[in-house]
Known about the structure:
4% of the residues lie in helices and 49% in strands. It contains two helices and 21 strands. It has 291 residues and is mostly beta strands. It has two domains: 7-178, no CATH class; 183-287, Immunoglobulin-like, CATH 2.60.40. The strands form four sheets. Strands 1, 3, 4, 6, 7, 8, 9, 11 and 12 form a nine-stranded mixed beta sheet that branches. It has a four-stranded mixed beta sheet with strand order 5-2-10-13.
Amino acid sequence: MLNHQKLVVMASLGMLAGCGSDSDDPARFSLAITDAPIDEATQVVIEFTAIELKPRNGSSVVINLASPQSIDLLTLQNGETTTLIDQHTIAAGEYDWVRLAVNAEFDNVYDSYIVFDNLQHELFVPSGAQTGLKLNQGFTVAEGQTARFVIDFDLRKSIVEPVGQPGYFLKPTLRLIDLQQVGALSGEIAEARIINLCQGEKLGAVYVYSGVDVTPDDVDGRDPEPLTSVLVYRDDDRYRYHVGFLAPGNYTAAYTCDAVNDLPESDQPLVFTTAANVSITANATTTLNFD
Length: 291
């Protein structure tokens, strides 16, 4: 068990096809990080220190990183990832959970921090040294196989500025994705739509919801909550978006210029100009344009 003053984040893993019995023959485990971004911030840096896996039968296994990895999550947008561990040998069999250890305390060290308007603020994870975020599923790794997963930090749901505190709270909202079963959604936003609806330099964002015919809403802790969201970016005089790491299935996608006003844990009247149903297929990118 990791027993120190560090954030502990617990995330579930979807079931990976393979045998379910424990074995002395090794398997391999790879884990990467990606990010669903936040408006206004120019850096969100997290310092990762270790990964802990819990076999169903036996004590947990701690994988200490060779050195702490400071990762700016805002560099990991539009399907970009960075690897925490790659092809690490583990025992084949069933596992109950995976745990990340992160340095994120109000201690004036600034190992984890966020930057707004060129000002650096410490990040703190409430109860991070205890249970963190727990999702109750497990995963299985077959003999001789590699389990590949990516964890998506959804910063739009996570960053909170508490009253009377020296920095910001990071309440991680994570998606854990099996890379063997994943698709993507991408497309363009019509320039006229952005010019007519958006103000200043902001280009808006695309929100994605699980299921079809969802009435879009902001991030406020109440249904319907977006599964994820991405910022629109300009590329070759076109306005594009890309949502990576979606499990196969049916979704509702919606565009808004008001994402900058979306504050977690509070209800904001965002205006969504368009919503459309879309189907995602594994190992393929679905195109949806907002004309």
